[in-house]
């Protein structure tokens, strides 16, 4: 009903704006004639003043008075119909009918073709409707509007974080997971989600910060598949492919047949096998036996053994340089040993092998940055 009241008022206003000038035509013409008469009277007064001051000859003054008088007479003798100079009655009638017909016809069409009873849908109303009838963007907007007004709603952040992750809004997902953890406490799902968001925000690199989140998730749930998968990926990125393969194989043996992670693990195992074949004998770190042997040594002997293995890895990479995982492990090894200059040198050599504009170079740079290391110019 409110719609029709407003529409009627607007239509009435528009119609009056058109009709009023038609009704006032003769009045405007009469006002124009009165103005002309006033002008002629002013001319006569001015002529008398000029003649009195001697600015015009008496004969010329008389001739001018006669001319002005003739104009006044013509104005007074004009045809009253012409004097009105307004539209005829028939013209005004046709215009009135046309003006009134437009809203009547348009209202008729709208009542048949339009939806006058459909309620308005401002953003606030759309966000308040049934979530099942909303798009993903509307749901996110609803959640964001709610959290802007209620930033301490940990449950809201917990719901929004994985949505951000699926939408690939990784920095937003990191912030949402941190808020959920801060407000509602740790959980394996939140820590694993945080680690995944951090890794994806870094271009897929499982950085030390992401590893911390995944390890925190495993402390709460040792079987968490997301944390186990990404930690194995971190091992592969460091060049520890055999360890990563073993971790993925262990996962594959414990995952249910209908787990969505089975396909991801199988794909990761296939990719790691292809890389191993392509690289021949890949550069790798110490195996389990070497680690056990090193644990029984004195600190000096253990340090010497580690440095020997790192040097061996460096030499293998000089002979077989197109091994991206090996370069990342070498950089990390030098950083752990506190040899920042050698780590930068290894980083620079790795970038040079693949080219500064390559995907591997960007991966190396991001990985080094996660270790607090920057490439030399």
Automatic annotation (TrEMBL):
This is C-type cytochrome biogenesis protein CcmI. Residues 144-260 form the Cytochrome c-type biogenesis protein H TPR domain. The lineage of its organism: Bacteria, Pseudomonadati, Pseudomonadota, Alphaproteobacteria, Hyphomicrobiales. Gene3D superfamilies: Tetratricopeptide repeat domain. Residues 276-298 are annotated as: Disordered. NCBIfam families: cytochro_ccmI. It comes from the Bacteria. The keyword Repeat applies. Residues 1-31 form the signal peptide. SUPFAM superfamilies: TPR-like. It is found in: Cell envelope. One of its GO terms (cellular component) is plasma membrane. Keywords: Cytochrome c-type biogenesis, Repeat, Signal, TPR repeat. PANTHER family: CYTOCHROME C-TYPE BIOGENESIS PROTEIN CCMH, CYTOCHROME C-TYPE BIOGENESIS PROTEIN CYCH. One of its GO terms (biological process) is cytochrome complex assembly. The keyword Magnesium does not apply.
């Amino acid at each position: 009903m409110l719609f029709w009241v407003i529409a009627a008022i607007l239509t009435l206003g528009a119609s009056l704006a058109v009709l009023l000038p038609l009704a006032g035509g003769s009045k405007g013409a009469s006002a124009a004639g009165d103005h002309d008469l006033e002008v002629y009277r002013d001319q006569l007064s001015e002529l008398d003043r000029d003649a009195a001051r001697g600015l015009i000859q008496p004969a010329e003054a008389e001739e001018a008075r006669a001319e002005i008088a003739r104009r006044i007479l013509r104005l007074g003798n004009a045809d009253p119909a012409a004097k009105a100079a307004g539209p005829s009655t028939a013209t005004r009638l046709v215009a009135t009918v046309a003006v009134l017909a437009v809203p009547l016809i348009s209202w008729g069409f709208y009542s048949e073709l339009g939806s006058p009873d459909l309620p308005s849908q401002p953003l606030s109303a759309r966000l308040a409707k049934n979530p099942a009838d909303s798009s993903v963007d509307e749901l996110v907007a609803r959640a964001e509007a709610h959290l802007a007004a209620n930033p301490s709603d940990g449950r809201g952040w917990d719901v929004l974080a994985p949505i951000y992750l699926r939408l690939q809004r990784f920095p937003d997902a990191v912030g949402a997971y941190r808020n959920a953890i801060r407000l509602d406490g740790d959980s394996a799902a939140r820590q694993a989600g945080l680690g995944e968001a951090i890794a994806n925000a870094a271009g897929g690199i499982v950085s030390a910060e992401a590893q911390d989140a995944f390890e925190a998730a495993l402390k709460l749930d040792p079987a968490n598949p997301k944390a186990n998968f990404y930690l194995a990926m971190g091992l592969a990125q460091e060049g520890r492919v055999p360890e990563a393969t073993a971790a993925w194989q262990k996962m594959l043996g414990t995952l249910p047949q209908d787990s969505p992670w089975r396909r991801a693990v199988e794909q990761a195992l296939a990719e790691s096998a292809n890389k191993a074949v392509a690289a021949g004998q890949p550069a790798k770190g110490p195996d389990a036996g070497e680690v056990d042997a090193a644990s029984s040594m004195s600190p000096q002997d253990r340090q010497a053994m580690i440095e020997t293995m790192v040097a061996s890895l460096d030499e293998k990479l000089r002979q077989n340089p197109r091994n991206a995982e090996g370069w990342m492990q070498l950089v990390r090894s030098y950083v752990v040993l506190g040899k920042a200059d050698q780590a930068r040198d290894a980083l620079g050599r790795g970038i040079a092998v693949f080219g500064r504009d390559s995907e591997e170079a960007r991966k190396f740079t991001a990985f080094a940055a996660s270790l607090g290391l920057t490439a030399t110019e």
